[in-house]
């Protein structure tokens, strides 16, 4: 489905708030757990009863909780508890629960831990659970994903009417769907959430918890590490692209484009450092989005039905500040579907865009997408909101 910039931002805000809530919940659990573990002291107790309690989840999944009841004396007062770990209910497989019970027969003497300020809070296993850490990590994952939402949803919109930036003497400068700079900043946001915050958060468990560590801790830390590396890599890619070339400037004449009629296009890009451009190419692409069913579920599938690259500039060595310019003709092939309107309800839906790709030798490649409108027959007048002027002779180079 199509997301407007406003809806994309709203989704990002909702996800961000949900992530913050999970981080706060997880951090609260971690602090509460370690506050308790730092206070407890050890004493001897007698096991009075044992049991294995079965729990069933909402989907019928079964888990088992070992119950080992014990009693101990503190300052002449007898206290009783059946808590196995600091958490009220530590659950697992039936075999695990039965093995815990088997290690603590009734009448045996065991060591337990209790809170001197509240001796009734006592347990057998001084164990640091990863549960609070995991909830917090999921929150950080969601926050990082929220930073990427405006970029990702903008890049995969089902319908995307063009939003021209400038109109003068029949020439329209198109805006990229998402600029390279914007994509770079969103990945920096993800890197902060996944790398600078989530990685130390996960590492804290391995520093303070006694071995053996929980298996879920390896999973949570592993996923966090992979996400952090991906964010670091993508941040580096966009930083390198931004240091190599500017955002492409793409101007077309007689917008919207008409099916079967050639349209003039002017492409310009400035080198920001000494680079070797292996190829600068354009692609007028038609995206078809339709409803398909898989496994009884409905999903929107988008494929390219018109997808042909045209080389605008061949291998060229460019110096810092040098502008690479090309003029060429683009045409939506006869019989191609026009762009779907923003209010279209049925399926399939079509959107058109001009993709620009700059291949750089030994550097990350530049790639961007510029939405355009394609119509059948003579184009209707479209209201545009100019925010600049083209003098008809030269297009201002991007900063």
Question: What would you say this structure looks like, in words?
Answer:
The protein is elongated. α1 runs antiparallel to α3 and α3 runs parallel beside α5. Helices cover 32% and strands 35% of the residues. The chain contains five helices and 17 strands. A hairpin with a 5-residue loop joins β15 and β16. It starts with a helix and ends in a 24-residue tail after the last strand. It is an alpha+beta fold and 399 residues long. The C terminus is likely disordered.
List the helices and strands and how they pair.
Layout (H helix, E strand, L loop, with lengths): L4 H35 L1 E16 L5 E13 L2 E5 L12 H9 L6 E7 L2 E6 L7 H25 L10 E3 L2 E4 L5 H29 L6 H30 L4 E5 L3 E2 L4 E8 L4 E20 L2 E17 L2 E3 L4 E8 L18 E12 L5 E7 L1 E2 L24
Parallel strand pairs: 9-17
Antiparallel strand pairs: 1-2, 1-4, 2-3, 4-5, 6-7, 7-8, 8-10, 10-14, 11-12, 11-13, 11-15, 15-16
Helix pairs in contact: 1-3, 3-4, 3-5, 4-5
Class inferred from helices and paired strands: alpha+beta
Give the termini separation. Answer: 34 Å
Q: What is the helix fraction of residues, given as a range? A: 25-40%
Percentage of β-strand residues: 25-35%
Strands, total number: 17
- Average the pLDDT over all residues and give the rounded result: 86
Q: SSE string, helix = H, strand = E?
A: HEEEHEEHEEHHEEEEEEEEEE
C-alpha Rg (nearest Å)? 31 Å
Summed up, the helix count is 5
Shape call: elongated
Please summarize the sheet with the most strands: 5 strands, antiparallel
């Amino acid at each position: 489905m199509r997301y407007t910039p406003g809806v994309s931002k709203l989704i990002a805000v909702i996800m961000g708030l949900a992530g913050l809530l999970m981080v706060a919940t997880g951090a609260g659990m971690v602090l509460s757990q370690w506050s308790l573990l730092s206070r407890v002291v050890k004493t001897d107790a007698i096991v009075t009863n044992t049991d294995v309690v079965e729990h069933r989840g909402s989907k019928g999944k079964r888990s088992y909780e070992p119950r080992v009841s014990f009693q101990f004396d503190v300052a002449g007062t007898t206290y009783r508890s059946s808590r196995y770990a600091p958490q009220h209910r530590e659950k697992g497989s039936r075999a695990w629960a039965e093995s815990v019970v088997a290690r603590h027969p009734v009448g045996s003497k065991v060591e337990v831990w209790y809170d001197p300020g509240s001796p009734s809070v006592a347990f057998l296993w001084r164990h640091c659970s990863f549960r609070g850490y995991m909830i917090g990590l999921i929150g950080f994952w969601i926050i990082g994903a929220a930073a990427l939402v405006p970029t990702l949803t903008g890049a995969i919109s089902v319908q995307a009417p063009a939003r021209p930036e400038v109109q003068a003497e029949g020439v329209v400068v198109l805006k990229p769907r998402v600029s390279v700079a914007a994509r770079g900043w969103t990945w920096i946001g993800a890197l902060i959430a996944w790398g600078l915050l989530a990685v130390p958060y996960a590492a804290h468990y391995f520093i303070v918890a006694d071995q053996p560590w929980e298996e879920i801790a390896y999973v949570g830390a592993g996923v966090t590490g992979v996400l952090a590396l991906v964010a670091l890599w993508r941040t580096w890619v966009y930083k390198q692209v931004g240091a190599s070339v500017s955002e492409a400037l793409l101007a077309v004449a007689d917008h919207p484009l008409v099916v079967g009629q050639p349209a003039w296009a002017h492409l310009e890009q400035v080198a920001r450092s000494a680079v070797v451009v292996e190829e600068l190419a354009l692609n007028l692409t038609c995206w078809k989005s339709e409803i398909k069913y898989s496994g009884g579920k409905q999903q929107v599938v988008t494929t390219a039905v018109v997808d042909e690259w045209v080389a605008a500039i061949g291998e060229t060595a460019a110096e810092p500040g040098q502008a690479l310019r090309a003029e060429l003709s683009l045409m939506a092939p006869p019989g191609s579907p026009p762009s779907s309107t923003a209010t279209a309800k049925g399926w399939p839906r079509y959107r058109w865009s001009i993709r620009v790709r700059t291949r750089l030798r030994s550097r990350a490649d530049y790639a961007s997408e510029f939405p355009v409108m394609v119509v059948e027959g003579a184009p209707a007048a479209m209201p545009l909101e100019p925010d600049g002027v083209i003098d008809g002779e030269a297009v201002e180079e991007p900063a």
